[in-house]
Amino acid sequence: MYDMRYTGVPYAAQTQSIRIAESTRRYMEDTCRRMGRDFSSLAHEMVAEAVKMRRIPGIVFHDTPSGRTAAVAGTGIQVWEVVRSYRQGGESWEKAKAAYHWLSEVQLRAALAYAEAYPDQIEERLRLEERWSSEAVWNRHPFTRPR
Question: Does the model's pTM come out above 0.85?
Fold first, then answer.
């Protein structure tokens, strides 16, 4: 069975027994109640994110209106934003450094490394963002159209 909920990455469902500290379990159960999620899907999401953050240091995850997303630690800048700018600049390292001059080299490299490690996740988000043209927003929310 493959399940893509919450992570965007298919995984083979396998039962695994682990011991969880009481305080961690309580936090997870509170989060499940608050978010209307089941324990298993939340645990999977947390473990998957922890693996990704260990694999690519300097990346964290944030809740956004469109779901959980990878971001550059300490900035709030989402990885897909860096990738979009990088591509728009012809994939030039120099242009990327100039576009994000306030990021350290380590932060910028972490964003690009994350995109390389998880291309499907980034491509999916970039496709989603491409759908939001000015016309698309105005059609969906006519009151936002300039006079």
Answer: no
